[in-house]
Amino acid sequence: MTPGTFGDAAAGASAPLIALDTVVLDTETTGLDVRQDRIVQIGAIRMHGADILETQVFDVIINPGIPIPAGSSRVHGLADADVSGRPNFAQVARELETFIGNRVVVGHSINFDLAMLRNEAHRHGVRWKEPRWLDIALMSVAITPGLVSPSLDNLALTYGIEIEGRHTALGDARATAAVYAAMQQRLIGKGVRTLGEAENLGWSAHALVAQQQGVGWFERPAGGPDFVHTAIEIGSKRAIDSFLYRQRLEDVMSSPPITVDAGASLHEAARLMADKGIGCVIVRQADGPHGILTERDVLRVLADRGPEAGATVVGTIMSSPVITAPGDTFLYRALGLMARRNLRYLGVRNEHGDLAGVFTLRTLLRERALSTLTVGDEIAAATRPRELARVRAALPSLASGLISDGLNAQAVGAVIAAEGRAMTARAAEIAEGELLAAGHGPPPADYALLVLGSGGRGESLLAADQDNALVIDDDYHGDLDSEEDWFSRFSMRVNEILDRAGVPYCRGGVMAKNRSWRRRHGEWLRQARIWATEPSRQGLANVDIFFDFAPAHVSSTKAAGLADSLRLECAHVARASPGMLRILSEDAAARYSPLGMFGRIRKDNGGRVDLKNGALLPIVSGARVVALRHEIPAHTTPERLRQAAAAARRSESVAALLADMHGFLMRLILTQQIADIEAGIKPGGTVDVSRLNRRDMERLRHALQHVGLVRNLVGDLLRET
């Protein structure tokens, strides 16, 4: 047969376990010597996340080509007579290859089985490509200190699983699948959510790993990921057109929209479209929502009505209402929406909700653009947390591809933040639907679900947890303290969905499910005044998070006003509280600095530097303070710095320098996070500076020397103008 390729696993290290496609595999053999013994049976079953796909199984007996020892037969029950006339390994190899496909292989002491398969493939001339794998024995030892034995029997007993068909390949594969499904909740409890993290968890069972290596089952690859090159290569495996991720609808829309009255004739509308060289017109209605008339509509009516078509009234054939998206929607997300809804034209709304323009896309351009999308509109179609988890898992690859295409880190952070807001919005929609289906009814009052912190600023990195809050209309008279309250149930479910989707619960409790982050509009204003007049350390930490909010989901148009008015009123409170602003500025300037004596950069024991807390956050916090002082409407740190300096007519060169430093630090942290995720390491705010090139190292040293400029700039801009 033609040599085949096994286990071409496509899953990356960021793939979430709850949505991971796996094959749980086991073999029965003539003995335990992986070099000399042969396979007599292969059993496997597919899984998706924790779901065992009972009908998708592989079960085959193989003629090993050598006598089966009596001792081995007593274990698995297969003797020479049972394998006589059965196919050899080469004859089932292609079928096994197809069954495994791109899935990760899971097993109990799986490296024994993989070593057997590897050697059989070599023996029969079948090309072998190692799959990614997870070993439940290794993971169990790592998550259960003091485990008496990681045997399959003991693990099944631990998780309350009854084994049927013990020591048959398929029976053991089924038992292993059940153990793997049961242990996933414990893995999440240990903070292990991705394939890479699970792989690293297994490697941490050092004694058992050494035993497996000692008997020749495998060799662990030497070395770790290359810092910059690994990060760039991750994303460059697939071409990404960064134009789609840096432009928004408002940048490319046709504005103002060309319109006709609903009472106009088709002939008049077609003439207008021809004169303007456009493919659609917006149809105005005095007593209803606007509609849209497209080239396709014109052709359809002409085909149906012939010469009489020109007299057709436009209002009778238009499509209404016009499907729209906000002007600040990234193009990649707009294209995803258009693909899902099969649209060629999309209305664009301004910040007041009015139709401000139309975005059009010709078929050829649309096909070329969609082929470059790493993340499209999958979030809008998600119905379960694991579907959201797939989108989140794609973000490291997307970020890497955009960086390799030359997009600056601040723009990449905006894309990551946009996806975070979209995930939060979809979690809210799912939670609303579940409450309605369970008989709890629709929302009892208008509300806005807010994302806080970096997500609200549009500057997210890849290590974000949940920071969200709920603002509810003051007309609501329910008991927000009760667990039975609609908004209590809703918030709890939203946070649970996000956690399951890979956005972990906030360690500081900044989540809408907690009563202090779930308030009526008036309660939030009172809280803002308390923070302003009675500043405390915890209160200042809350200000740091809360004052950078953006609505992710609103229950109605009126609810959108809740967030807008809250922002304006809280800004007034902050501006009138110089004492709070002064303390915030002092706190920003007093943060830990990674730069020591003689310009040396301090490193921790792992050789890393905390650039997030020591350099990035002082700039972010300082920009927030001056934005509050001057009521700057900008969300992003660079724009806050520039606008505040321009408003005060001071320190514009320093503001520009700090904005540039902000982008540079984001790039270093983001690139390190991408490399860490690919290596199965939890991303954070630290960077291994030993892997930086000389140019970036010198630039970093220069940046750290000038972080102190934050104190000067903030002090300057806090003074009365």
UniProtKB/TrEMBL annotation:
It catalyses: DNA(n) + a 2'-deoxyribonucleoside 5'-triphosphate = DNA(n+1) + diphosphate. PROSITE patterns: CBS. Residues 253-308, 318-375 form the CBS domain. Its EC number is 2.7.7.7. InterPro entries: CBS_dom, CBS_dom_sf, DnaQ, DUF294_put_nucleoTrafse_sb-bd, GlnD_Uridyltrans_N, Ribonucl_H, RNaseH-like_sf, RNaseH_sf. Keywords: CBS domain. DNA polymerase III is a complex, multichain enzyme responsible for most of the replicative synthesis in bacteria. The epsilon subunit contain the editing function and is a proofreading 3'-5' exonuclease. This is DNA-directed DNA polymerase. It comes from Pseudorhizobium endolithicum.
